[in-house]
Design goal:
Elements: H1 16-27, H2 45-60, E1 64-67, E2 73-76, E3 86-90, H3 104-119, E4 128-132, H4 146-151, H5 157-161, H6 171-178, E5 193-199, H7 204-208, E6 213-218, E7 220-229, E8 233-234, H8 246-264, E9 269-278, E10 284-285, E11 288-297, H9 300-317, E12 324-333, E13 336-337, H10 340-352, E14 358-362, H11 367-371, E15 376-382, H12 398-415
Parallel strand pairs: 3-4, 3-5, 5-15, 6-14
Antiparallel strand pairs: 1-2, 2-4, 6-13, 6-15, 7-11, 7-12, 8-10, 9-11
Bound molecules: glyoxylic acid and manganese (II) ion (2 copies).
The site of one manganese (II) ion has 6 residues, from loops.
């Protein structure tokens, strides 16, 4: 008897209800009460519970699941040959005030794509794979994209395992504690191509009335931790002229970063997202301030200029006998340009689905920017309501989630037929 003929691939569509059910189920883990958002910081108990759920779904689908030394999890469709897979995926860790779609969409849409393909009895020439990478957010353990950075060999595993988090925990210990220090080697197997679906996390698609973004690249990222040390003293008795006050310096740096980004102009952005004063009491001039500066630009020369000017300010602020300032680079990634042929493919697939895709660079960091170091890579964006992200109110219309997953499906199927 002849095997039953393959269904018409072009008519294939994901099951949106199954995708939404999985997004809802994952969002219940670490849910922030009274909001739609999630708190699943990397390698916490909540992250472990999310990982366990997604791994269960991968195994239920019959995928070959592996975990590597930094806790990246990959599920690959079993296949007879040894062709490198077409890989998709993202992350399931969130910032402490995260939304339910950032990263999670890319992982669960990847799972949905594979289930759709398998249920339809389609056997692509190359297997499909879906993964989630450890600590994409970098909110607990800098740098961001830590797992994918190690996956592509951009940072040695041993160095990564020793990274200390904002709470004093250490990556390797936390991986052991939650049972996700795997045996798969790092760097990981190079896929044939990598394609990531993600929410835009910005306002552009919505403002332009577009439903699909064909992402052209990712802007460069520079994260610096700055510690300013002064002299702690009594708030009532210390004359203003005799103070060495790190809080004032932190405020000056904050406004400088804001003004600098405005002066350099779009797409330069600058953010002070974290300031810790010690001892942080109403009637004590602080002893120290520890703060972070996040600078980003698609143009590396301008980003370097911004870094240089920040450094200049810090040098000016360090007078002998006054404040001392120490800096540490937490993350520094150059801008990435995605493979033009993959960007064109995403746009063509979106057009064939009746969309008018917009080619845009990404403002946020993504695992795809790391995978682009080793294989042909691209990304698909869907709109974020009001441009909100890293906020529990983050929202994307279910029709857009479905549309993005269908563009992912057909982009992957196309790439999977390549030699
Ligand atoms: C990661 O999500 C980042 O862009 O900060
Ligand atoms: Mn993300
Ligand atoms: Mn994020």
């Amino acid at each position: 008897m002849n095997p039953s003929p393959e269904p018409d691939r072009s008519a294939l569509r994901v099951n949106p209800d199954r995708l939404m059910e999985r997004l809802d189920a994952l969002a219940r883990i670490g849910a922030i009460s009274g909001t739609a958002g999630c708190a699943r910081l990397a390698l916490t108990d909540e992250d472990r519970a999310g990982r366990d759920l997604v791994v269960t779904w991968m195994r239920d689908l019959g995928l070959d699941v592996t975990v590597d030394g930094i806790g990246n999890v990959t599920g690959v469709m079993p296949s007879a040959g040894d062709a490198a897979p077409v890989m998709t995926g993202s992350h399931i860790d969130t910032v402490a005030t995260g939304g339910r779609y950032d990263g999670n969409l890319g992982v669960l849409a990847g799972l949905e794509v594979i289930e759709t393909v398998r249920t339809a009895g389609i056997e692509p020439k190359r297997p499909l794979a879906v993964g989630f990478f450890t600590d994409e957010e970098g909110a607990r353990f800098p740098p961001d994209m830590l797992g994918s950075l190690v996956y592509v060999g951009g940072l040695g595993l041993e160095d990564a395992l020793q990274i200390e988090g904002i709470d004093g925990a250490v990556v390797g210990d936390e991986l052991d504690r939650i049972g996700y220090r795997g045996i798969e080697p790092c760097p990981g197997a190079v896929p044939h191509a990598f394609i990531e679906l993600h929410i835009e996390q910005g306002p552009v698609l919505e403002a332009e009335g577009r439903h699909i973004g064909a992402v052209t690249g990712v802007q460069g990222i520079s994260w610096t931790s700055i510690t300013i040390t002064g002299q702690s003293n009594h708030a009532g008795t210390t004359p203003m002229s005799m103070r060495r006050d790190p809080a004032v310096a932190a405020a000056r740096i904050t406004t400088f970063v804001h003004d600098l980004a405005n002066e350099l102009g779009h797409p330069q952005v600058g953010t002070v997202g974290k300031i810790d004063l010690r001892p942080n009491l109403v009637n004590v001039v602080p002893q120290s301030a520890t703060m972070t500066v996040d600078l980003r630009n698609t143009d590396d020369a301008t980003l370097q200029d911004a870094e240089r000017r920040l450094r200049q300010l810090l040098d000016e602020m360090t007078a002998p006998g006054d404040l001392s300032i120490d800096t540490t680079t937490l993350a520094r990634f150059e801008p990435v340009v995605f493979d033009p042929a993959v960007v064109d493919l995403v746009a063509a697939v979106a057009e064939s689905h009746g969309h008018d895709p917009l080619r845009i660079p990404s403002g946020a960091g993504h695992d795809a920017q790391m995978l682009a170091r080793v294989c042909r890579t691209g990304m698909i964006f869907v709109p974020s309501h009001d441009g909100l992200s890293h906020n529990p109110a983050e929202h994307t219309d279910p029709d857009d989630l479905e549309a993005g997953a269908n563009v992912l499906l057909h982009t992957m199927l196309h790439l999977a037929e390549e030699d």
